[in-house]
UniProtKB/TrEMBL annotation:
UniProt cross-references to InterPro entries, sorted A to Z: DUF3899
Pfam families, sorted: DUF3899
Keywords: Membrane, Transmembrane, Transmembrane helix
Domain DUF3899: 32-120
Top-level lineage group: Bacteria
Protein name from the UniProt record: DUF3899 domain-containing protein
Phylogenetic placement of the source organism: Bacteria, Bacillati, Bacillota, Bacilli, Bacillales
Membrane-spanning segments: 6-24, 31-52, 100-122
Length: 123
């Protein structure tokens, strides 16, 4: 079970639903609001981590360094050896921990948002 991220996603989603219910003191409106905010924040965390882990900012900074080298007409370091996708970094980009974090936060976000909309329509 420790390696199955889908089971962890279900477990953490149920835990999130239970915690938001307990914190809402039994009020349906407060529960819907808490579910929506928890889902929104979880999806924001997943999206931010996905963008950062994907190397967008690394490539963005490499592009600017290349641009500044060209604009300064500096003959030193004229070549650009790094690949734009970050393949030369040697880091393992698809590690288990990062995929688990993205999967869990995305699952929590989707389940909580969907449940808040379902509860809102049937209220």
């Amino acid at each position: 079970m420790l390696n199955n991220r889908y089971l962890w996603g279900v477990f953490v989603s149920l835990l999130s639903i239970l915690v938001t219910w307990l914190l809402s003191n039994g009020s349906t409106i407060r529960w819907i609001n808490a579910l929506f905010m928890t889902g929104l924040i979880s999806m924001l965390i997943a999206a931010t981590y996905f963008v950062v882990n994907g190397g967008f900012f690394n490539n963005f900074s490499r592009g600017f360094s290349k641009l500044f080298k060209i604009m300064s007409n500096n003959p030193m370091n004229d070549d650009f050896d790094d690949s734009p996708d970050g393949g030369d970094s040697g880091e393992e980009r698809k590690a288990w921990a990062s995929q688990m974090l993205i999967t869990l936060t995305l699952t929590i976000g989707l389940v909580d948002l969907a449940l808040s909309f379902i509860l809102l329509t049937f209220r």
